[in-house]
Design goal:
- The chain has three helices and five strands; from the N terminus they run βββαββαα.
- The chain is of the alpha+beta class and 90 residues long.
- The protein has a three-stranded antiparallel beta sheet with strand order 3-5-4. A two-stranded antiparallel sheet has the order 1-2.
- Strand 4 and strand 5 form a beta hairpin.
- It starts with a strand and ends in a 5-residue tail after the last helix.
Length: 90
């Protein structure tokens, strides 16, 4: 199961379409930062880089619940790298 959602970056000037696979809930991405956001210092907290110089900030509580319920794996194994490297959000 795959779905797509469009997100507006924190500065409000750009959007990005992200694909969510294997039933990953779209709410797992709680903030996105475009290259302008990053350049202007709007990025707060830890965010994960993706191609195109964008950064994603994840709601890890939602991601861990997904991991337990849908993937049946230890929630301690769920981190931003797992989400991106596993192709759950592209």
């Amino acid at each position: 199961m795959e779905s797509t959602n469009v997100f507006t970056c924190q500065c409000g000037n750009h959007t990005i379409a992200l694909n969510f696979k294997a039933g990953m809930p779209q709410e797992v991405v709680d903030r996105v930062f475009c290259p302008d956001c990053v350049k202007d210092g709007a990025m707060q907290g830890k965010a994960w880089p993706i191609p195109g110089n964008w950064y994603l900030h994840f709601d890890m509580e939602i991601a861990r619940i997904f991991g337990m319920a849908k993937l049946r794996i230890d929630p301690a194994l769920i981190n931003p790298g797992f989400i991106i490297d596993g192709g759950y959000v592209e």
